[in-house]
Amino acid sequence: MTKKSEWEEMIKRAAVKAKEKELHEKRTLRKFVDSLKTVLTMELLVGVFAAFSLYIFFGWNDLFKVLLSWTIGITMVSTVVTLMVDRYKKLIHLR
Prior knowledge:
Largest sheet: none
Order of helices and strands: HHHH
Number of helices: 4
Structural class: mainly alpha
Strand content: under 5%
Shape: elongated
Low-confidence stretches: none
Radius of gyration: 25 Å
């Protein structure tokens, strides 16, 4: 049989290992969320939500009419331009 001190040591090691695993999972989740923030900016989310809402409430015809009139298209174009400007600023600061 194992002694009480051995059990205590095993429990401490298990607790440390569990904390390390939890920290690793939090870091991984945080990295994933940060990577999503660079791709899914607020403008893109608003555009996708608007497109989905138009489809649900009015159908495909009205959605295509709005897309052709650039209401949602401009939102997505502005997202790309914003990302390009942000990356350009980062490149300037790196030099």
